From TrEMBL:
<feature type="transmembrane region" description="Helical">
    <location>
        <begin position="275"/>
        <end position="297"/>
    </location>
</feature>
<dbReference type="GO" id="GO:0022857">
    <property type="term" value="F:transmembrane transporter activity"/>
</dbReference>
<feature type="transmembrane region" description="Helical">
    <location>
        <begin position="176"/>
        <end position="196"/>
    </location>
</feature>
<feature type="transmembrane region" description="Helical">
    <location>
        <begin position="111"/>
        <end position="132"/>
    </location>
</feature>
<protein>
    <submittedName>
        <fullName>MFS transporter</fullName>
    </submittedName>
</protein>
<keyword id="KW-0812">Transmembrane</keyword>
<feature type="transmembrane region" description="Helical">
    <location>
        <begin position="396"/>
        <end position="417"/>
    </location>
</feature>
<feature type="transmembrane region" description="Helical">
    <location>
        <begin position="84"/>
        <end position="105"/>
    </location>
</feature>
<dbReference type="Pfam" id="PF07690">
    <property type="entry name" value="MFS_1"/>
</dbReference>
<feature type="transmembrane region" description="Helical">
    <location>
        <begin position="365"/>
        <end position="390"/>
    </location>
</feature>
<feature type="transmembrane region" description="Helical">
    <location>
        <begin position="16"/>
        <end position="44"/>
    </location>
</feature>
<feature type="transmembrane region" description="Helical">
    <location>
        <begin position="50"/>
        <end position="72"/>
    </location>
</feature>
<dbReference type="InterPro" id="IPR050327">
    <property type="entry name" value="Proton-linked_MCT"/>
</dbReference>
<keyword id="KW-1133">Transmembrane helix</keyword>
<dbReference type="InterPro" id="IPR036259">
    <property type="entry name" value="MFS_trans_sf"/>
</dbReference>
<dbReference type="GO" id="GO:0005886">
    <property type="term" value="C:plasma membrane"/>
</dbReference>
<dbReference type="InterPro" id="IPR011701">
    <property type="entry name" value="MFS"/>
</dbReference>
Length: 430
């Protein structure tokens, strides 16, 4: 007996899907934490320095969301049609270039203009690359993979958020825009070129777990299935399940968008920019824990139950912010729990889509539903800004968010009632 060959055959080679996950996690994490979600730290220093109203400045978030909304369907086609590395490198140049240009501006119009190329690039990298590549490479452990991706972003954010707060304080907001854009571009471009591949076929292999997956049509389970199983795009987009999913996306993004105001919210309660940066950094630790937790819970208890749990959990930080907004310990606890809850956006959004509609036309269904994510920024971010501008307080916003969390629970229940109807009508195709 040849023991050497036996030993070799029993060893499992690391599947390239895990290399893809490492690359995607770093790319998405750096671009989100370093360019997209960090914008809130600049609100107070920029508006104070240039004499711009918070609501007027925040309109650039709306413009960015509007550009994202119109770019999503086109981006979904381009990322599938052309070399993914060329597409993503072009995207990071647009995103980082637009972000760096903010440091040169003296008028709010500069943010309105340069958020356009920044948002176009962001669509490819922060919105589509993660879910699509993980869906292509993982037919097993989808929840775990998404959780790791989001958790990595949280770890990166835990480093970059306080560092950015200190940079703004020490070298000014203009130089901080330049430094962050340079760091992200220099790290991300090589990762894209050397690690990323669109499909396993490009490496001559099968997706991870392709030989083990089974079709699942259970009402509240993530459907881990071959790409041909599920509801067609034609049937999905007309269903009540899709309407509920779209609205859920819209509302959970509106809730998470309040994260852009946590820094000015902290400063409105007497804290300084360094404390705000530290608090946002600690929030990233909540994001790390939440990403792994929600990935695990979704795989074990289903996307439906996990989504409901996340919405209930989201009420806690709002209450803490209402009751004791000037207490530093309570504030940080609230921020960490908020980060824990909002990380469900990164895991539950794609998992709810696959749980409700399967994998048959996943990319098309997800891209259309994701317009709800973009649309939320158009409305929620400036509304929050103008509410503060009109009232001088964030209290009303906190009550609105509690109401939105309750509405989202009802939408999850409605979505799965809609799935039952699709299954009863034979819409699930194999």
């Amino acid at each position: 007996m040849n023991t050497a060959s036996t030993t070799t055959s029993t060893k499992k080679k690391l599947h390239y899907a895990w290399i893809i996950l490492i690359g995607v996690a770093l790319i998405v994490g750096l671009t989100k934490a370093g360019l997209t979600s960090i914008g809130g730290l600049f609100i107070t220093p920029v508006t104070t320095d240039l004499g711009i109203g918070v609501g007027s400045f925040s309109l650039y978030f709306s413009i960015a969301s509007l550009v994202t909304m119109f770019s999503l369907p086109i981006a979904g086609k381009l990322i599938a049609k052309y070399d993914v590395r060329v597409v993503l490198v072009s995207a990071i140049i647009l995103q980082a270039g637009g972000f760096a240009a903010f440091g040169l501006m003296n008028s709010v119009w500069g943010w309105y203009i340069f958020c356009i190329p920044m948002s176009i690039g962001s669509v490819f990298i922060t919105q589509l690359a993660g879910p699509i590549l993980i869906n292509n490479w993982f037919k097993k452990h989808n929840g775990l993979a998404l959780g790791i991706m989001v958790a990595t972003g949280g770890i990166i954010g835990a480093i970059l958020q306080p560092a950015a707060g200190n940079l703004i304080s020490d070298v000014g907001w203009r130089n901080t825009y330049f430094i962050l854009a340079a760091i992200v571009a220099v790290v991300v471009i090589p990762l894209i070129i050397f690690l990323i591949r669109f499909t396993p076929a490009s490496k001559g292999i099968q997706p991870l777990g392709a030989d083990e997956v089974q079709v699942s049509q259970k009402e509240d389970e993530v459907a881990v299935a071959p790409s041909t199983a599920g509801v067609s795009f034609k049937n999905a987009k007309k269903s009540s399940a899709f309407i509920a999913l779209f609205l859920f996306f819209f509302i959970i993004t509106s809730i998470a968008s309040f994260g852009q105001y946590l820094a000015p919210f902290a400063m409105s309660n007497g804290f300084d920019i360094k404390f705000a940066g530290t608090a946002l950094g600690l929030m990233q630790l909540g994001i790390v824990a939440g990403a792994l937790t929600f990935g695990f819970l979704s795989d074990k208890f289903g996307a439906k139950n996990t989504a409901i749990f996340a919405m209930i959990l989201g009420v806690i930080p709002m209450i803490l912010f209402i009751v004791a907004p000037t207490n530093s310990v309570v504030f940080i606890i609230g921020v960490v729990v908020f980060g824990f809850m909002t990380t469900s956006l990164g895991t539950l959004v794609p998992l709810l889509t696959s749980s409700l509609f399967g994998m048959k036309d996943y990319s098309q269904i997800y891209s259309l539903a994701a317009i709800g994510l973009a649309a939320a920024g158009i409305i929620a971010l400036p509304v929050y800004g103008f509410i503060f501008q009109a009232t001088g307080s964030y209290s009303s916003i906190l009550y609105v968010i509690i109401a939105l969390l309750i509405i989202n629970i009802l939408l999850v229940l409605w979505a799965f009632v809609g799935k039952k109807k699709l299954l009863a009508n034979g819409a699930w195709e194999k």
